Amino acid sequence: MMTTARINKLVKAAIPKGKPFRVIWEPTGLGQWRILRVVTPAWKSLPKFEGVQKVRQAVEPNLSQQERDQIFRFSVLTPVELKRMEEWLRGERRATRRKNGLNGRHKVAAA
After folding, report:
1. How large is the average pLDDT for residues 59-65?
2. Residue 63 in contact with residue 3, Cβ under 8 Å?
3. At what angle do helices 3-14 and 48-59 cross, to 10 degrees?
4. 35 alpha-carbon distance from chain centroid
5. What integer pLDDT is reported at residue 3 of this predicted model?
6. CA 40 vs CA 3, 13, 48, 60: distances in Å
7. Which domain holds residue 12?
């Protein structure tokens, strides 16, 4: 079984029955490391570390060392938190472009 399919199966077993979830792999930009992000409303009343701990305990023991080495960190968010984070990141990118003088166009060096 592929790693992604296996992780989905393990996360599904950790999530309370009937609660929706989505697994997102995000590259870190550092080698082959990725963030394993689980988006679910299942643990919205728990502190963040408890949701992360539940996912880690369900997933890590069932992965090979090579597969574990690819995971930089685990993240658990509600759909509302994910949407807020994505909006914030879009705003950051726009602010960075304005700050650097880039407005969707590339500067051309004068000859």
Report:
1. 92
2. yes
3. 130
4. 5
5. 78
6. 20, 13, 12, 19
7. 3-99
